[in-house]
Design goal:
Layout (H helix, E strand, L loop, with lengths): L1 H5 L5 H16 L1 H4 L1 H18 L7 E2 L2 E2 L2 H32 L2 H5 L6 H32 L10 H25 L7 H13 L11 H8 L2 H15 L5 H29 L3
Antiparallel strand pairs: 1-2
Length: about 270
């Protein structure tokens, strides 16, 4: 039974769901791709370049670095989190509740497990695509002399960010399975987005508070941000990325059966 919860991730039906979402995206690429890609670029320019130029003596791990160099790896981690979460929350909810896309898919050879994994894999794949685009943008910043990073380590960070995105996608699907309507979508923003984001060290180093660092140790986004930052700034692999992978796998192990049970109850009225 437990194996049947996870093996659908490798079935052709799940990837057919993902391919369907890709075709829809390509039909509306100008409205679907530009805003999510433009947002992190604006953040880099506004905070990294604009605010960073006003920040003197910014230190990380006891050494002075440009704020843009600190922010850029964090933005990669944060992009993987935000895009996967919102894609599996808002977009998946629309397809399930309003567009009735799931009902049509379930009349074919697709089972609910395939729909769930297809949504999660799509959210993670799209988030990873945005991360790759952001890497290209950062390379452009580097060619312009605005930032210096260990560029060869970027490829090593992408698979870890994909796994993190997959875990974040199931967090979004948990709310998709639970929230009664779009009017309640603000709830996960305050319960999940803000706490995880502020305790991740994405935009600024965490204050020297014991309780906050204890919380951060259980936050996969914190380990993603710090691990990617160490790779790109120091060229040094640390235990942050393995911790992020373990936490992401833990989230998947816990949430996959919960999401499946809740969605079966919601779609079919059964456990």
């Amino acid at each position: 039974m437990s194996r049947s919860l996870y093996t659908p991730a490798f079935h052709w039906q799940s990837w057919a769901i993902t391919a369907r979402h890709l075709r829809v995206l390509l039909l509306n690429w100008h409205t679907a791709l530009v805003p999510p890609i433009a947002e992190p670029v604006v953040l880099l320019l506004a905070f990294g370049v604009g605010l960073g130029s006003q920040m003197e003596g910014f230190t990380w791990n006891g050494e002075r670095i440009p704020y843009l160099a600190y922010l850029a790896p964090g933005i990669l981690a944060y992009t993987s989190f935000m895009m996967a979460f919102f894609q599996s929350l808002f977009s998946a909810f629309m397809r399930m509740h309003y567009q009735r896309t799931w009902e049509g898919q379930l009349t074919t050879q697709v089972r609910l497990e395939h729909v769930i994994w297809g949504e999660a894999l799509w959210a993670a794949s799209l988030a990873t695509f945005y991360v790759v685009v952001m890497c290209l943008v950062l390379i452009g910043f580097g060619l312009g002399g605005m930032i210096a990073l260990h560029w060869t380590w970027m490829l090593a960070a992408v698979p870890v960010l994909f796994l993190g995105s997959l875990a974040f996608a199931f967090v979004g699907l948990l709310f998709t399975a639970t929230l009664p309507s779009m009017d309640h979508m603000g709830l996960p923003f305050f319960l999940v987005i803000l706490p995880i984001g502020f305790a991740s060290g994405t935009y600024f180093p965490l204050p020297d508070l014991v309780w906050l660092h204890v919380v951060a140790e259980a936050n996969p986004l914190y380990h993603l941000a710090e691990g990617v930052r160490r790779l790109l700034l120091d060229g040094t692999p640390t235990w942050h990325l393995p911790k992020a992978m373990l936490l992401s796998l833990g989230i998947l192990l816990v949430l996959v059966p919960i999401v499946r049970r809740k969605l079966r109850r919601r779609m079919f009225g059964e456990d």
